Amino acid sequence: MLELVKAGGWPMIPLLLLAVLALAIVVERFWTLRRKEIMPPGLGEEVRNWAVRGQLEPAHIESLRRTSPLGELLAAALEVRQRPRDQIRERIEDTGRHVVHRMEKFLNALGSIASAGPLLGLLGTVVGMIQMFLGIQDSGVGDVNQLAGGIGKALVCAATGMIVAIPALMAHRYFRGRINGYVVEMEKEAMQLLDALDSRQPRPAGARPATMPASATVGA
Fold this sequence. Notes:
This protein is mainly α. The chain has helices spanning 2-8, 12-32, 35-38, 43-53, 58-65, 69-79, 85-103, 107-139, 144-200, 214-219. The longest helix has 57 residues, at 144-200.
């Protein structure tokens, strides 16, 4: 492995740094985006029971906010539970954007690594070919070692760039899909909480439908 790194020359240094950074991001995201950390089991049902029983003290809501991203989303809905349903939905959507932004942390960097890996590999290929042709210019085509070194550097850099980019791209797509799945499930939990809040709040007495007075009908 060390011989391959030496054969690739200086373009291998940024490629190896990108590989280390991509590995660190993947490990961190796997740990952070665990299901029990994002959506603790039974949390949605527990919060709905709070809503039905009226256990909605500020201390409950604040502790809920600190539990998880789902808890933060549900806490945002409970804070404005006395407002109309449309306003509660707006608060949920606003909080959800912040939650998703935090869940997508480092994913842009991972996507950039997936894009930059092949380009750096191509750069190494170009550098290797340039060195090969410069060697031919200096010593002619008879120096086989010079030709082999240039071609080897080009191939090693190109392969390394793809080795770095392909796993980074797959991990990026995987985490995006996982986050999208969490978003759908959290939206479902939030809507169920809204239904629970509506069920315990008395329906406001609205104005009765307007009817034509009897005198008007008689006069007609």
